[in-house]
Amino acid sequence: MAEQPSPETALLAQVLAADSTEAPLVRTTHRGSQPPAPARSTEDSKPPALLSRRNSILSRRSSFGMIPGSRRPSIGPWLFHRRVSFTGLPIFQPILKARLENTYRMGPDKGCKFDAEQVQRVLEGTLACALGTTVYSPQGSAPLAQSLTELLQNQAKEVVPPRYKLVCHVVLGQQGQQSLLVASRGLWDPETDSFASATFSNASLFAVATVYGVYFE
Which segments within the chain are labelled E, that is strand? Predict the structure, then answer.
């Protein structure tokens, strides 16, 4: 007849059996600690595949002309020009000025000098037509004198020979039965250079216009 184990032996056997079994894992978190990272699968643990040379070339081509922060390629002026700079702007050829040869002419042609009498007649007729019955105004005298200067210079150019530089001077004032003397001085060649002067006056204003013609060598 077999002997029954004692209570102490049975309790010891139960404790050993409990230790041999796997106890469930218990996750404990402490305040201020970060949760453990999730476990990675076998596919995530593999290193990333290396890009081939063809892929790198395609990526470089696709990035050409891209603006930082945008998805669409920028269509710049380099698409419409054959030669472009590194910045993408077209290279324009500089405009060269035409260089004329020397004429070696030190004076005007025979019979092509400044005609003072003809220019004086032009000045007198232009002043009479432009002023006529104009009334003097202190506020409008300055722009009126400027417009007269441009008008007289343009009219004198039509009768002056070429290669002459014209300088026009106009004095405009209020008519008050006063006397006026206009004088000028210049350095020029008396053989080729000259001047013409004309005056105009009405009941309200007077004008003195002078045009100087200087030959340009």
Answer: 164-174, 194-201, 205-215
